[in-house]
Amino acid sequence: MKWGIIGTRGYAAKSAAPGVEASTRGELVAVLGRDPDRTQEFAREHGIQVAVTGLDEFLATSGLDAVWIVSPTFLHHPQGMAALKAGKHVLLEKPLATTAAEAWELVETAKETGVVLATGYQGRYVPGHQAMKKLIAEGAIGDVTAARSYYGVHRDGPPPEWRQHRTEARWGALADIGTHHLDLLRMLLGEVVDAHGLTGHQLGFETDDVAAAALRFDPGVLATLTATVNVWKMATRVEVHGTKGSLVALDTNPAGAGTVTLITEDGERDVTGERPASVWAAEVDAIEAAAAGDDVGYATGEDGARNIEILERIG
Questions:
Q1: pLDDT digit string (tens) for 18-59?
Q2: Which domains does the chain have, with CATH numbers?
Q3: Which helix (H) or strand (E) covers residue 313, if one does?
Q4: Rounded distance, CA 163 to CA 3, Å?
Q5: Rounded to 5 degrees, what angle do the CA atoms 88, 11, 236 make?
Q6: What does the alpha-carbon distance between residue 40 and residue 308 come to, in Å, rounded to a whole number?
Q7: Spatial separation of the C-alpha atoms in residues 68 and 72, rounded to whole Å
Q8: Which residues pair with 211 in a beta bridge?
Q9: Cα 184 from Cα 193, distance rounded (Å)
Q10: What span, in angstroms and rounded, lies between the C-alpha atoms of 283 and 303?
Q11: H helices within 23-178, ranges in order?
């Protein structure tokens, strides 16, 4: 499958482009950027044939099958709609849009055009997380009763300018990192039926830099979620507790490092599984399989839209 990337800095350079390159079948053939010089530089770095600054020209790239959108949040909806209407499969980074209404419009457009819309939650492709889901379904920890998650990141300086403003990003830490654990909890526990939250602005920007939420899942599991970009070092933790045991994932986000442990009265067992060389490559492979009609699990557009509905409840 031939891929194009919208975006040339940060995540596009560190994760998206290498993810396509490391995938089983993906080929990176086009890039769209705002700065002509940086776009050409990005193309040279990754052996990309087409490097342009116009969306229409980008979508007209010969043979282009799929688009990975890694642009600022306020551009997700217009760029995603254009790509879907052009008949391209789309992997859209989270949050899918700045409102749930726009996110559901993307979902409906993908259905109308018959293409795949996926949301960029790479945590779904971590083998340890998949093991947690399987063990919960098998009853390894009994009936699940409670869960909690923590995602903390240390940043040396301010976020990019657009991330500082609600009109362009809407959320800060909540949508940047907190939404990853929200999606993981939904993958493990099912649907959220109630959500309440608090957000803080410790660093003085319009967007939040710390958020905490209480979640109720159907049929009654309670969970907490904390996300912050104002701590001394990066760390992640997801705990799921039941009537017969617990599952604990340490530092498994964002790329599948860390460990997953099953804890029962019989002791502790490492269930981490094989650590992936690239969760982003696994993500690309899953989306390509879905586009080919295979029955595979992936973070859908519906997942992205539903997560935004919950973010709107939290903050």
A1: 999 999 999 999 999 999 999 999 999 999 999 999 999 999
A2: 2-121 (3.40.50.720), 127-275 (3.30.360.10)
A3: helix 301-314
A4: 26
A5: 115
A6: 34
A7: 13
A8: 199, 227
A9: 15
A10: 15
A11: 36-46, 55-59, 73-85, 100-113, 127-138, 173
